[in-house]
Specification:
This protein is of the alpha+beta class. The chain has 2 domains: 41 residues, no CATH class; 107 residues, no CATH class. Helix content is 26%, strand content 17%. The chain contains 4 helices and 6 strands. The strands form 2 sheets. It has a 4-stranded antiparallel β-sheet, with helices on one face. Helix 1 packs antiparallel against helix 4 and helix 2 packs across helix 4. The radius of gyration is 18 Å and the shape is globular.
């Protein structure tokens, strides 16, 4: 009897079409970590905005700046963005929603459509006194692109 494969615990264990070596080598390079087996390291949370005009891009969680750049690349050019590490805070859903997690096909939304920032994040984003330390994401984005070309 064939044993059923166990559910992958970490991203590096997701293998499609026998691409295990590629996943371990390339993904580790892109994420800026030494070994793909460390992909489950602690996530950091970042606010991201476009440098010119300070337009909001989003709120992201990533274990490295390389993966942050890859996530930002899903919606805009990460080389024109800057990031700030986020302090303690969260997104709050102020009223009951019909959404449940995990999402199903019948869900009308994610449940976060009307979410608001916690008071700490609201304060951090409202201050012009430099509470958040904004840094360019361009270096990490260029390194990610260069590593994919190898």
């Amino acid at each position: 009897m064939l044993a059923m494969p166990r559910k992958p615990r970490y991203l590096h264990e997701l293998v499609i079409c026998g691409a295990l070596v590629w996943v371990k080598d390339r993904l580790a390079i892109v994420l800026g970590i030494r070994r793909a087996s460390r992909l489950h390291t602690a996530l950091k949370t970042y606010f991201v905005r476009k440098a010119a005009g300070r337009e909001v891009v989003g709120l992201f969680a990533a274990p490295s700046l390389g993966l942050l750049a890859a996530l930002v690349d899903e919606c805009c050019d990460p080389t024109v963005c800057e990031y700030a590490p986020v302090h303690t805070g969260g997104l709050l859903v102020p009223a009951a929603t019909g959404a449940t997690w995990p999402l199903d096909e019948a869900s009308a939304g994610s449940g976060l459509e009307d979410a608001v920032l916690s008071q700490q994040w609201q304060d951090d984003l409202s201050r012009a006194d430099g509470t958040l330390d904004w840094k360019p994401l361009a270096g990490a984005a260029r390194a990610m692109i260069a590593s994919l070309g190898r």
